[in-house]
Amino acid sequence: TGLLGLILNLLPWQEEDDSSKEDLAKKGPKVFNQNLLYLIWFSNFLSFLVLNITRTFFPLLGLELKMSPSFIGFILFLPGLSQIIITLFLKNNPAWSYNLKTIMVGQLLAITGLILIGFSKITLLIGLGLFLPGFMAGITNYSSNFMSLSQEEEGKKRIGVHEALVGLAGCLSGFAGGG
């Protein structure tokens, strides 16, 4: 998703200046960018695909690393915790939902987390590795919901697309993860 975001970063995005960030949530329909919404939908789909694959296959890795089942359950709680934290933060800062840089930061955090999961045998780093992709899922989910509903006349259709993509990620995660 990071590579896709970098490629799509070359498209002509509507940039807001820093002075208007407080008013950005009020001007939602005026600054709406369809390309950014498509990117957020795709990023949201991939973030839930990654989270579902991780939640499905991490217990196997945990058992291989001699973790107890209760500790594996605790570690699998971490992505949800990070989603809650970032959602609470974004709820008070809605201007971030219109910002491509926010999505890119979420993707970089998820990539860092997946590298930690894949290459670390240290429990603390694996826990951090599961915590970081939850930030991406929280950022993309909040931004997708926020932008989908930002224009009232199309909001119902757009939120339906958002939910369909999250559901599709859940369905495809077993196939994409090799299960």
SSE topology sketch:
Layout: H1 2-8, H2 34-64, H3 69-91, H4 100-119, H5 123-148, H6 152-176
Short structural summary:
74% of the residues lie in helices and 0% in strands. The chain has 179 residues and is an all-alpha fold.
How would you characterize the overall build of this protein?
- By secondary structure, this protein is mainly α.
- The chain has 6 helices and no strands.
- The chain has helices spanning 2-8, 34-64, 69-91, 100-119, 123-148, 152-176.
- The longest helix is centred in the first third of the chain and has 31 residues, at 34-64.
- It starts with a helix and ends with a helix.
- Mean pLDDT is 80; it is low at 1-16.
Main sheet overview = none
Mean pLDDT level: 80
Count the beta strands: 0
Amino- and carboxy-terminal Cα gap: 22 Å
Give the overall shape, derived from the CA principal axes.
elongated
Q: Structural class, from helix and strand content?
A: mainly alpha
Rg result: 17 Å
User: Which residues form runs of ≥5 with pLDDT under 50?
Assistant: 1-16
Number of helices: 6
Beta-strand portion reads under 5%
Succession of helices and strands: HHHHHH
Keywords:
single chain; 179 residues; mainly alpha; 6 helices; elongated; disordered N terminus
